[in-house]
Write a structure and sequence with these properties.
The complex is a heterotrimer of chains A (349), B (515) and C (315). In chain A, 72% of the residues lie in helices and 2% in strands. Chain A has 349 residues and is mainly α. Chain A has a domain of 224 residues. In chain A, strands 1-2 form a two-stranded antiparallel sheet. Chain A starts with a strand and ends with a strand. In chain A, 55% of the residues are buried. With 515 residues, chain B is an alpha/beta fold. In chain B, the strands form five sheets. In chain B, strands 13, 15, 18, 19, 20, 21 and 22 form a seven-stranded mixed β-sheet that branches. A six-stranded mixed β-sheet of chain B has the order 6-7-8-3-9-10. In chain B, a hairpin with a 2-residue loop joins strand 20 and strand 21. The relative contact order of chain B is 0.10. Chain C has a single domain, classed as ABC transporter involved in vitamin B12 uptake, BtuC, CATH 1.10.3470. Chain C is globular. Chain C has 14 helices and no strands. By secondary structure, chain C is mainly α. The chains are: A mainly alpha (349), B alpha/beta (515), C mainly alpha (315). Chains in contact: A-B, A-C, B-C.
């Protein structure tokens, strides 16, 4: 068999294959529910209701989507330039760490100054965390996939060390957690009384900004050119190494905002379970969005909905909550295949 | 070919082969027969269907109609092993060899049962050495393939086919990488093989070679077999017209009006970069209003010279002057600023970005300059207007400026690149293999553009592997060998054989000082 | 310093070195086979989780130990089949597919574990592989207890390195595999199927990765728990690079790695360990892996067609 490029794919192909991918994912999820001894329709219904069945559920989904938008954007920006940043998890924790360092009383600033300072410091830290692997890639040709992956483990141990050492909350009854942020360091809620913080608003703004950068600026053009064809970019005089480093700074900064927003908007302190793999899930979010920054918002909400819905379904129907991870990984794999099939025709000659 | 050999029937018979790719008919009822001890040439432009026909013979594609017979046996369709097993060997234009394996490993690959317990390297070595001696194709079996020259690699590619006991040999553009003298040596080896009863199909678009080696010529055009003639009954001009389908008008040449040197190199050296050979003390002057041709076997420093002029490489020794000034920190940006138009060797890999639109590709070299960008912001309207004007002025056939460039044919892609660099009114033009792989219409178009640029005072450096092209277009010719550059030869003072001797490295001890 | 010397002179230390290296050897050989054929398999981390679970579950539900190993290998091959199908004939991004396989495989194993044991808090233990002292050899002081008093799976790991090396460099199949990773067009021109070779390599390689995972539950920890693979897969990818895609050198890398890991565990018990946070020790394997990558970066011997999909008929 071989693949043949389709010059102008039909609308049927463009919609049919991705839709089939989603249907397959749902069918597979149903099969898993059956396997767990539950009624698949009921299970899917419970997931849907848990994700969007009430105002509370919906806000919970949007809250969960917030860090995913940031990590999704981080991955989308990096992957667009073929910088394989799998280290959003580490960058997220770097951002969270800066939020805690500045926000637990070290600076006696008012909110209007303190929050931007925390966000800025977070972005800087995240950017620096990714800059290391990016320099190793551009200077020595060390594959960034493995280095960024390994950095995730190093960072988590580093945070653990801090939480059991200098950052340990004296009032924490011995748990490895940081002190709580001062009230000025907390992101306010968007609407009083509703459990949705400004981190979500910030995420939406970030998505729009990334879209503008990618489609309207020379930097965005450079990033796309380097990602599509490094050799041609170099021939055209685009400074490939520098573009990769800039991409790394932007990507790392975006991922770090996820940590900042989780700490300042939701948790109020830093713990080792701050992120249940938001960095890795960001890859799914970005790929489902076809690396489009606006698409990232939609796919992050979808992915968050599956997680939130599965949590509540699991409590009610007893199907293990890991069904959400399986379905999302399935969606990722079927979707990349579906996208390929919109562009290529399989021929058996 | 003798009378009694025809009595045995053809060794290979392609009968009514038809192959469609969507709406395109790549092969339209093509029938070709090859007789024992015969050399036939398969002639055709790029895209005429030669490669598709060979892919069907070797089972990589399944034909929509027709059959393949080897030594009277019908080959099963779509089985890549069938043709090999029946004794057909192919010498690919792009060698199918692995750089990190040894010569012997490359030859042995796929010849022993896959599930065999152990490779028989000793037996293989003996057979390879024997074949190499028999046909005068010397190679070191233990050399890493990556360390061999292009000519040596071709020998390995041929030996690989002979090792499999091929009785029918198909050579795809085998002389593209050789000097004329090496090509003659290849022809001698081929004649030796024919004398031993092998039959050969020679795929080419070089007419005088076809005349030299083949006894019969089969011409393909747009997937159809349009002619079959004995070599003794035809001449290159007739063949060319058969191949193209119309009378060929050679480019119109006016006398050159040489101006001052716009780009000068004196004793320039550049470092070796991996497989790219550096320059060893090159003296070169590109004068306004002239075309300077650069001949040479690929891999002898042409890439380094092209990279240098394109701004991708800096001299590590010697002096370079652009418009009379030695540039500091030579770079792509400086090269573009100096008005150098750069037509890269590989339009797919370096010239364009496949998934970018025509608009995005049109501004590739000037995306951060006015009018396309201001303070980091892109002006897509200006970019699109520019793309539109290039499309119109250079006759780029495409659905529109928002089309992805990967959907264009090679010729149209090259026209966009040409327009991109020529619209600026360049002083110096670097044309690296500018017409390789194009059909005759596109070739004529590109060559006329280069001549027009020359006539309005630009200095053109024409790098090509096609000696005919060099000899036709150049006002003076240099030859490269092992990173050295020959002195300039004026138009009409050299023929292909003379150039070939320089390409093989002769004359340089004398020439390097004379220049 | 005396404490450190003492560590190096104890047989139990060297036994631990080999024990720690064993699962890495399996998985590294698996990854090496994939990469030699031209496919980067980032599914390794998840496939190890699946192997760990499948092997353990088989034994837990009454199957034999070797049955467990076979089941683990089969499960790994299934995920390899999925990986191969998506990356080889369809030529999808090996990065994305690999990470997707890791997510899918990990989640599947956790899902199945929760399905089988919905309410356990302490992971149940199984009767795992026992050390099998090799007569005579195991009596050699220091070396005997270290090298020749290991479980059968460990011996198998070392035998495997020899087998992989022999197959790659001494058989027609190995030559074809290496050629598929160097220049697939050369393989196709000889009438061999690049797709079949690469798919086979990914499946076999994934099977070996899963056995590496099974080693953890069946020969080291004797039970299955979440996060137990803990980045070992990624480390194996670094080991392949460190070993310059040669089985012998990769083995050396795995043993070196085991040495550092065993050392840090023991250092934690010493006076040094009292002063330095334990996290620093736990970081060492990851830091060392990155260092190894940096050191080896200059010596490129990467299979030339690694991560390059092959689509026949494409020009």
């Amino acid at each position: 068999m071989r693949l043949e490029v389709i010059a102008r794919p039909s609308v049927w192909r463009m919609i049919g294959f991705p839709a089939t991918a989603l249907v397959l994912t749902v069918v597979f999820g149903s099969a898993l529910a059956l396997l767990a001894g539950a009624n698949p329709f009921q299970t899917l219904g419970l997931i849907l209701r848990g994700a969007a069945g009430s105002q509370f559920a919906l806000l919970e989904t949007l809250n969960r989507a917030t860090p995913l938008i940031f990590t999704g954007l981080a991955v989308a920006v990096a992957f667009r330039a073929k910088l394989w940043n799998i280290g959003a998890e580490a960058q997220l924790y770097a951002g969270a760490l800066m939020a805690v360092l500045l926000g637990t009383g070290a600076l006696g600033w008012p909110s209007g100054l303190l929050l931007p300072a925390m966000a800025g410091a977070a972005m800087l830290a995240g950017a620096l965390v990714l800059l290391g692997p990016a320099i190793l890639k551009t200077r020595l040709g060390v594959d960034e996939v493995v280095t960024t992956l390994l950095f995730n483990f190093i960072m988590l141990l580093f945070i653990s060390m801090l939480l059991e050492g200098p950052l340990k909350d004296p009032m924490g009854m011995g748990w490895p957690q940081s002190s709580r942020l001062v009230p000025e360091a907390r992101l306010p809620r968007i609407v009083d009384g509703l459990r949705l913080h400004w981190g979500f608003g910030l995420a939406l703004i970030a998505a729009v900004l990334v879209w503008v950068i990618q489609s309207r600026t020379t930097l965005g053009y450079e990033m796309r050119a380097v990602g599509q064809n490094k050799q041609a970019a170099e021939f055209a005089g685009i400074p490939v190494g520098r573009v990769i480093l800039k991409t790394a700074l932007l990507s790392g900064g975006l991922a770090a905002l996820a940590g900042f927003s989780e700490v300042a908007g939701l948790r109020g302190n830093l713990t080792l379970d701050l992120s249940p793999g938001f960095g890795y899930t960001g890859i799914i979010v970005a790929m489902l969005a076809l690396l489009n920054p606006i698409g990232v918002v939609i796919s992050a909400i979808f992915v968050a909905g599956v997680f939130v819905g599965a949590d509540s379904m699991s409590r009610a129907a007893g199907v293990p909550t890991y069904i959400a991870n399986i379905m999302l990984a399935t969606a990722l794999l079927t979707m990349v295949l579906a996208i390929a099939l919109t562009r290529f025709r399989v021929r058996w000659d | 070919m003798t009378a009694d050999s025809t009595a045995q029937g053809p060794v290979l018979r392609l009968d009514g082969i038809t192959k469609r790719f969507g709406a395109l008919v790549a092969n339209d009822a093509v029938s070709v027969s090859l007789w024992p001890g015969e050399v036939i040439a398969l002639l055709g432009e790029n895209g005429a269907g030669k490669t598709t026909l060979m892919n069907i013979l070797f089972g990589h594609y399944t034909a929509d109609g027709g059959s393949v017979e080897v030594f009277g046996q019908t080959l099963p369709q779509g089985n890549p092993r069938a043709a090999l097993a029946a004794g057909v060997g192919m010498v690919h234009q792009h060698f199918t060899l692995a750089d990190n394996l040894s010569v012997l490993e490359n030859v042995v690959l796929g010849t022993q049962p896959l599930w065999g317990a152990r490779l028989d390297m000793a037996g293989a070595r003996a057979k390879l050495v024997g074949l190499a001696q028999e046909f005068g194709l010397a190679v070191n079996p233990d050399a890493r393939l990556g360390s061999l020259s292009v000519g040596e690699r071709q020998r390995v590619e041929i030996l690989k086919a002979l090792y499999r006991d091929a009785r029918i040999l198909i050579l795809d553009e085998p002389t593209a990488v050789l000097t004329p003298q090496q090509a003659d040596a290849l022809f001698a080896a081929l004649r030796k093989m024919v004398a031993q009863g092998l039959s050969i199909i020679f795929i080419s678009h070089k007419l005088h070679e076809v005349m030299a080696i083949a006894s019969r010529v089969v011409v393909l055009r747009h997937g159809k077999l349009v002619g079959e003639v004995a070599v003794k009954d035809t001449d290159p001009r007739a063949l060319a017209e058969m191949m193209v389908g119309s009378a060929i008008t050679p480019p119109e040449l006016r006398a050159a009006k040489p101006g001052p040197a716009l780009l000068e190199l004196r004793g320039v050296m550049t470092p070796d970069r991996g497989t790219v050979r550096g320059l060893r003390g090159v003296d070169l002057a590109l004068r306004a209003g002239t075309i300077t041709g650069l001949a040479g076997v690929s891999g002898n420093g042409q890439a380094a010279l092209a990279d240098l002029i394109a701004g991708l490489e800096r001299p590590s020794g010697g002096e370079m002057q652009v418009a009379g000034v030695a540039p500091a920190n030579w770079s792509v940006a400086q090269a573009l600023g100096a008005g150098i138009a750069r037509i890269p060797e590989d339009r797919h890999k370096t010239g364009t970005i496949a998934d970018f639109t025509l608009t995005e590709n049109a501004i590739l070299e000037r995306y951060n300059k006015a009018p396309f960008a201001r303070r980091g912001w892109l002006d897509w309207r200006a970019a699109r207007d520019f793309a539109q004007s290039v499309i119109r002025a250079y006759d780029v056939r495409c659905p529109g400026p928002d089309t992805r460039i990967r959907l264009l044919s090679g010729g149209n892609m090259q026209k966009l690149i040409l327009g991109r660099v020529m619209e600026v009114g360049p002083q110096i033009i670097l044309a690296n293999q500018a017409v390789r792989g194009l059909d005759i219409g596109a070739i004529t178009f590109v060559q006329n553009q280069l001549l027009a640029a020359r006539d309005r005072g630009a200095a053109v450096l024409l790098i090509s592997e096609d000696l005919d092209e060099i000899l036709t277009l150049s006002d003076q010719i240099h030859v490269m060998s092992e990173g050295r550059l020959s002195p300039a030869f004026a138009r009409g003072t050299m023929n292909a054989a003379d150039l070939g001797r320089w390409m093989a490295g002769e004359g340089f001890e004398r020439g390097s000082h004379a220049a | 310093m005396g404490e450190i010397l003492e560590i190096f002179l104890s047989a139990s230390f060297w036994a631990a070195v080999i024990r720690i290296a064993s699962p890495l050897i399996f998985a590294t050989m698996g990854e090496l086979i994939c990469e030699r054929a031209g496919v980067l398999n980032l599914g390794i981390e998840g496939i190890m989780v699946v192997g760990a679970f499948a092997g353990w579950m088989t034994v837990y539900s009454g199957g034999g130990l070797w049955t467990g190993v076979m089941v683990a290998m089969f499960a790994g091959m299934l995920f390899g089949l999925l990986h191969g199908t998506l990356t080889v004939p369809f030529g999808l991004s090996q990065h994305v597919v690999g990470l997707g396989i890791t997510l899918l495989a990990t989640a599947s194993a956790y899902f199945a574990y929760r399905l089988a044991l919905p309410r356990v808090t302490t992971p149940p233990r199984i009767e795992a592989f026992q050390p099998l002292p090799i007569p005579v050899l195991s009596d050699i002081p220091l070396i005997g207890p270290a090298l020749f008093t290991q479980t059968p799976l460990t011996y198998l790991a070392f035998v495997l390195v020899g087998v992989v090396s022999f197959v790659l460099f001494r058989t027609p199949l190995g030559l074809a595999l290496r050629a598929a990773g160097e220049n697939p067009a050369a393989v196709a021109a000889q009438g061999l199927s690049v797709t079949a070779l690469r798919m086979g390599a990914v499946m076999v390689g994934s099977g070996l990765m899963a056995v590496g995972g099974a080693f953890l539950t069946m020969s080291a920890f004797n039970s299955f728990f979440f996060e137990m693979v803990n980045g070992r897969g990624w480390i194996c990818i670094a080991l392949v690079v460190f070993g310059a895609w040669m089985p012998g050198k990769a083995l050396l890398g795995a043993v070196l790695f085991g040495m550092f890991d065993a050392l840090q565990i023991r250092l934690q018990q010493t006076s040094i360990g009292a002063d330095v946070p334990y996290q620093i020790f736990l970081m060492m394997p990851f830091v060392l892996s990155i260092l190894a990558l940096v050191i080896m970066s200059r010596r490129a011997s990467v299979p030339a067609a690694l991560m390059v999909p092959f689509n026949k008929g494409e020009r």
